[in-house]
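Sample entry (341 residues):
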Amino acid sequence: MTSSPPASPSAPENPYNLLPPKRPNPQYWRYASLTAFILICFQAPSSDSWGTALRRACWAAYWMTYLDTSYKDGSRAWPWFQRLRIWRLYCGYLQGKVICTVPLDPAQQFIFAAHPHGIGTWNHFLTMTDGCRFLSSSYPRPRLDLGATVLFFIPFLKEILLWLGCVDAGASTAHAILARGYSSLIYIGGEKEQILTQRGKDIVVVRPRKGFCKLALQHDCPIVPVYAFGENDLYRTFNHLKDFQLWVASTFKLAFPPCWGVPFLPFLPLPVPVTVVMGEPLRPRTGEGKEGRAGGEKGVKPTREEVDELHTRYVEALQRLFDAHKGRHGGRSEEATLVVR
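Predicted structure, serialized as tokens:
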């Protein structure tokens, strides 16, 4: 796979001082794929047809790509793919908009804490592509966003996610990409928030989720609260057996909430307007703490009090963001409420 064209000599190659992975992704999977392809093609004379041998060779070569570990370091992010024109058509279908309530400085690293997860996090494509001009106009700094591990084992979907700059949501991966200088977007509610998705309701799961606050404190990285109005209305959902679905999600780390979208094309989301609103960044530490640690200090393990204080500020900021915009986006009335779990 070719990468985007090299930058002009006058443009800096790494304007944000991003660091490469400490352990470069081994490329032996490429040679394994080529070897599998050649060996199976040699079996063509003894097989039914060249077509059969070619199909087997292609599948064998593709399955070898699962030796690739770039889903842990983001080394296959492809800026050219993120800026394809097709993403503008996608944003047009969803009537997508991205609103930044304050300008986001691309020189500053951020953790974007996003809600709601919805059925398929379709709003994510509004900010990790340039379909709404977010990457080119609002925040051009490269991001590596966290995604569920299982997604990187689904054929062909994993390639799309890797090219869009998604990485595994493990704690070690999150620490590594922040240490390298990348910003990141995290869907805080995860699969539990996905299962609780209901049309016309706004439910977020955030009270038991404090890991992102620890990340922000350890890397001195401001948190940007993000809410996507309309995400929960993209599918009709089956709102029974929620307890069983939550048990399956907690036991097997998988969530398949029953849902349907466009008639006769149930996996296609309904053409509901989706607006992503980004709030004002929250500094991890507002001043000197109990142990004499001032804001701006990296690499120090945060105390429980510091984590709780930042988490409380985040929940309050998310509530303010929702209340300030609920009457203008997503078909919500001024009386709509945000259910925080």
